[in-house]
Amino acid sequence: MISQEDFEGWVEFMDETISQFLHDLPDEVSDKLDFSTESLSALEEWLMNEYSSPADILQPSENWTIDRASRYVGETLRRSAGGVWDIELSEPSAAFYGLPVIRKSGAWTECPASLVTASLDRREGEYIRSVVGNLSE
Fold it and tell me: What pLDDT, in 10s, does the model give residues 44-97?
């Protein structure tokens, strides 16, 4: 993201974009995605079936998929553990500079896109669920 205004527009269309993502997924996947921590395993399984590595989902042609999967992960984290969507645009050396994150003030900051790519690297099937579950405790 380039500006705070871009980020605010991105957040404004959160529900609509996630709804479209769920509509576009195969029914056997979308039927399991209910924003519960457990549903993250179904999403991760689908991601692993679609992408053999983080490099595959980071291709420009896959920007829409990683964005929408990250939104779902972030919203699931926000709903289960609290926090708000935020973005770091003032410090270019920040780990998640320019990427949407869920931030729980005084507790933690997590980047949903990094959870998606890390899950494709680890290929455990429960990575995203585990991280979100730990943050929700």
Answer: 999 999 999 999 999 999 999 999 999 999 999 999 999 999 999 989 999 999
Q: Which amino acid is at 21?
A: F
Distance of alpha carbon 88 from alpha carbon 52, whole angstroms: 30
Inform me whether the pLDDT recorded for 2 exceeds 80. no
Q: CB count, 10 Å around CB of 21?
A: 19
- The residues near 47 (Cβ < 8 Å, ≥ 6 apart) are 57, 69, 116, 119, 120
| Cα pseudo-dihedral 18, 23, 26, 30, rounded to 10 | 50
Instruction: Supply the pTM of this predicted model.
Output: 0.95
Contact 37/76 with Cβ under 8 angstroms? yes
Placement of tokens 């959870």 in the chain: 115
